[in-house]
Design a protein that fits this description.
With 212 residues, the protein is an alpha/beta fold. The protein is built from six helices and 13 strands. Strands 1, 4, 5, 6, 7, 8, 9, 10 and 11 form a nine-stranded mixed β-sheet that branches. The mean pLDDT is 97. The structure holds 1-O-pyrophosphono-5-O-phosphono-alpha-D-ribofuranose and uracil.
Length: 212
């Protein structure tokens, strides 16, 4: 894969440790769900480094001091349904005031093309930093479509957070949306003939919701 200025691989021993757990086929639904959420928290810590802030004055028991705090109402999280839902609470644990929108997309099983079935976004999302979340970035079709929908809605500052990225999908999104920062915790090897990521973790939605 060529090098992209807008792609960030968030490598950390703790992230690697948790990746090993979610990749393991013997990890049960409860633990899978918990660890996906924890990974989202760890990734949010890094990927929101440039979160909008504002100055406030705080009174300590001894004197007043100017401090920097996260700007209220500056963030929106947009999970791609279904699997993206598994990452929302982990990000909200750091940014409890964030608004949450939903984009429903599923991959057609034969063409692997994303099909839209739902879109509900917070009022005023155009002015916010929007973090699109989906644990898997495979062909990149779903993420590209979600980002295009957000741009059509007027969003200007969009980021994408995926736990596992395939080179094919990362390249597709990075080429189509060079203005979007893409955060993954690992870049896997490739896609198989069914467009599943190798080594990957299988079907993220099914593993989060226990549907298979
Ligand atoms: C999975 C995953 C992504 C998409 C990635 O969802 O959660 O949304 O596939 O594939 P792509 O990069 O090739 O588009 P899926 O369509 O299986 O729906 P689900 O989350 O409802 O299971
Ligand atoms: N969607 C998943 O859930 N897993 C993959 O490996 C690819 C797409």
């Amino acid at each position: 894969m060529k090098e992209y200025k807008n792609v960030y691989i968030l490598d950390h021993p703790l992230i690697r440790h948790k990746l090993a757990i979610i990749r393991d086929k013997n990890t049960n639904t409860k633990q899978f769900r918990e660890v996906i959420s924890e990974l989202a928290t760890l990734m949010a810590y890094e990927s929101f480094k440039d979160v909008p802030t504002q100055k406030i004055v705080v009174e300590t028991p001894l004197e007043t001091v100017e401090q920097t705090v996260v700007k209220e109402n500056s963030i929106a999280i947009v999970p791609i349904l279904r699997a993206g839902l598994g990452m929302v609470d982990g990000i909200l644990s750091l940014f409890p005031a964030a608004k949450v929108g939903h984009i429903g997309l599923y991959r057609d099983e034969e063409t692997f093309e994303p099909k839209e079935y739902y879109c509900k976004l917070p009022v005023g999302i155009e002015e916010k930093v929007v973090m699109v979340v989906d644990p898997m970035l495979a062909t990149g079709g779903s993420a590209c479509d979600a980002i295009t929908m957000l741009k059509k809605r007027g969003c200007k500052k969009i980021k994408l957070m995926s736990i596992i990225g395939a080179p094919e999908g990362v390249s597709k999104v990075a080429d189509a949306h060079p203005d979007v920062e893409i955060y993954v915790s690992t870049l896997d090897r490739c896609l198989n003939e069914h467009c599943y990521i190798l080594p990957g973790l299988g079907d993220a939605g099914d593993r989060i919701f226990g549907t298979k």
